[in-house]
């Protein structure tokens, strides 16, 4: 084992090498929802502006995107936005009150699917690209910016339900009773999402992540029949349009342990897993076919700094540190002490990692 506190690689080189399962001197670390309510700096901005105003004002989005980089020294900056921006651009009115997002006119018929717009990302969601460019201008070329979108099934759930606080029963019933309609909706979403992410890459995103929050509601058969082809459609389009240097793609599919083996079929180079999936098990199942991201339970960060640090080190130990981006198994919780977030990042960045030869050969 060896330990290092300072990498000779830039943060961007380190992150991209980890995505590609190449040797690294230390593990890269970032935190899902790292720009948000646990930070006093974010709360100060939010007190003056609505959530959607921040998302749609590039200088505000760039400011809150940069905050965790300045405060925590994370190894990547994810652009501040919301997964429902695509649904709004497709023609669904969006409101985000404190009680949670609301999409008017839920999509529950073939006519509603036909009425969805094929939008121009460079025009209708230009603010996202402008925010990415602003982040890159401030952070410089040595820090990776992560662009993102919802995976097709997850966005479909929100579009069908209109709003959801944990209940997607209408979407699941439609999956059973009107499978052709769901397929049609997923295809429309996949096409729009691909163009949306291509715009983010053109603006300078070095990595792309798909968030599949509701993946765990599907059986393996349903995932392979409905969500997997739509996800493949998105990710394959990025592989063929991102230029000479391929942009790594991360897939986070929450509660997907019951069909873990299906996820690498998506075309993602990195599979992000929640805390219910054991990292050592995932590494054993995937070998070196794909890298891993995750997966510390966000609730641990509500406890002591020492417990937080130990959880970070334990996660790194389970993968050996190679082909691994340390992260939480879901978004950081609003009540998380900033000191614990710092402890998590620092513990990961200084955790011992194995020499490449100890990791094993590719499958």
Structural commentary:
The protein has 363 residues and is an alpha/beta fold. The protein has a single domain (11-359), classed as TIM Barrel (Alpha-Beta Barrel), CATH 3.20.20. It contains 16 helices and nine strands. The strands form two sheets. It has a seven-stranded parallel sheet with strand order 1-4-5-6-7-8-9, with helices on both faces. Strand 2 and strand 3 (102-103) form a beta hairpin.
List the helices and strands and how they pair.
Blueprint: H1 11-19, H2 40-46, H3 51-56, H4 58-72, E1 77-78, H5 85-89, E2 94-95, E3 102-103, H6 110-114, H7 121-124, H8 126-139, E4 145-150, H9 152-161, H10 169-177, H11 179-203, E5 207-212, H12 220-239, E6 249-253, E7 270-272, H13 279-286, E8 291-296, H14 305-319, E9 324-328, H15 338-349, H16 356-359
Helix pairs in contact: 4-8, 8-11, 9-10, 9-11, 10-11, 11-12, 14-15
């Amino acid at each position: 084992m060896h330990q290092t506190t300072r990498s000779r690689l830039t943060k961007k080189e380190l992150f991209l090498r980890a995505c590609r399962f190449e040797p690294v001197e230390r593990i890269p670390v970032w935190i899902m929802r790292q720009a948000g309510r646990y930070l006093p700096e974010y709360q100060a901005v939010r007190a003056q502006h609505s959530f959607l105003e921040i998302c749609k004002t590039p200088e505000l989005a760039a400011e809150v995107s940069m905050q965790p980089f300045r405060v925590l020294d994370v190894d990547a900056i994810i652009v501040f936005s919301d997964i429902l921006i695509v649904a709004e651009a497709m023609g669904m009115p969006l409101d985000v009150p404190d009680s949670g997002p609301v999409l008017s006119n839920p999509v529950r018929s073939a006519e509603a699917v036909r009425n969805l717009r094929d939008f121009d990302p460079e025009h209708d969601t230009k603010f996202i690209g402008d925010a990415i460019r602003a982040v890159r201008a401030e952070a410089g070329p040595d820090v990776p910016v992560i662009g993102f979108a919802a995976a097709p099934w997850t966005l479909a759930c929100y579009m069908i339900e209109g709003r959801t606080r944990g209940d997607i029963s209408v979407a699941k019933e439609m999956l059973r009773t009107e499978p052709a309609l769901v397929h049609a909706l997923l295809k429309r979403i996949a096409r729009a999402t691909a163009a949306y992410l291509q715009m983010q890459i053109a603006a300078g995103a070095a990595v792309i992540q798909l968030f599949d929050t509701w993946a765990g509601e599907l059986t393996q058969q349903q995932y392979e029949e409905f969500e997997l082809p739509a996800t493949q459609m998105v990710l394959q389009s990025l592989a063929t349009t991102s230029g000479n240097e391929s942009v790594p793609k991360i897939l986070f599919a929450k509660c997907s342990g019951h069909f873990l083996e299906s996820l690498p079929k998506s075309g993602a180079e990195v599979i992000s897993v929640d805390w219910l999936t054991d990292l050592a098990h995932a590494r054993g199942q995937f070998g070196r076919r794909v890298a891993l991201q995750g997966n510390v339970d966000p609730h641990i960060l509500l406890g002591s700094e020492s417990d937080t640090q130990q959880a970070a080190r334990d996660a790194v130990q389970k993968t050996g540190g190679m082909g691994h981006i340390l992260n939480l198994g879901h978004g950081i919780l609003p009540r998380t002490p900033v000191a614990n977030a710092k402890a998590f990042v620092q513990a990961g960045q200084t955790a011992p990692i194995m020499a490449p030869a100890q990791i094993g050969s590719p499958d």
